[in-house]
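Predict the holo structure. Ligand: N-acetyl serotonin.
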Amino acid sequence: MSSPEEQAFRLLTEYSNGFMVSQVLFAACELGVFDLLAEAPEPLGAAAVAARLGTSSHGTELLLDTCVSLKLLQVETKTGKALYQNTELSSTYLVRASPKCQGNMLRYLARTTYLCWGHLTQAVRDGRNQYLEAFGVPSDQLFSAIYRSEDERLQFMRGLQDVWSVSGRPVLGAFDLSPFPLICDVGGDFFKDPLPEADLYILARVLHDWTDERCSRLLARIHGACKPGGGVLVIESLLAADGRGPLTAQLYSLNMLVQTEGRERTPAQYRALLAAAGFRHVQCRRTGGLYDAILATR
Ligand code: ASE
């Protein structure tokens, strides 16, 4: 048994090393380790993986064995030789051919989000996103919204789709949507473009990107397009009433700080925005999953 002081140090070390774990995952994805092992007819040795990926033998062996400790790979020793294959986790979520593959989101996190998080201290100091600090581009000179290029925008959209393929279902089940036969999933240039006619407008992972002012403008536009009995379904990660949890929503709110002009919000904050836009009935449902749902009707 370790003392409370030792346990505290263990926890601290785990937090300190968290970024290394992220990078092992990102690198293994980027190099195509999981796809290679999925496509191979049998488990492969480190030398074979290195040869097929064109990577160093030492680096590859370290990466593979670290993935084993992280349960991203499994190893078996046959006649003294270590052979690697995917685990259930990596087969489901990290192999390109899997319908639940998170590869696009992981690539986006590795190439964009991670670099902004490298400037979290500065983001907390000045309360702004870190595109200038991370990429040398002021956020008002980006290709569009939070994207440095069209390629990056597409990478992000594919990433969001990856997450949705796993976490979308439970949110859509949170409310009975049968009173809304025609549903519009709001995307694109929604501050300017006319809104199509619909019974329900879905704002999924949209409001958290924007300031209260911009959210109010967008919700007022949607309220204007809404028929009586129509509504809006907001899909976001809800913060607890006091803002002090759950950890994932708090981390996502910091993520919005380093990357966008938005934040995650509490149910009361969404209620206030929706009420100010003219919506009468507001219901918040926690799903226990990544995303929660708020339904507001006119
Ligand atoms: C945004 C979402 C993200 C804006 C910037 C972002 C994510 C990373 N950077 O709207 C993804 C956050 N994670 C999930 C599961 O949504």
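The chain has two domains: 4-93, 103-297. The CA atoms of residues 115 and 135 lie 8 Å apart.
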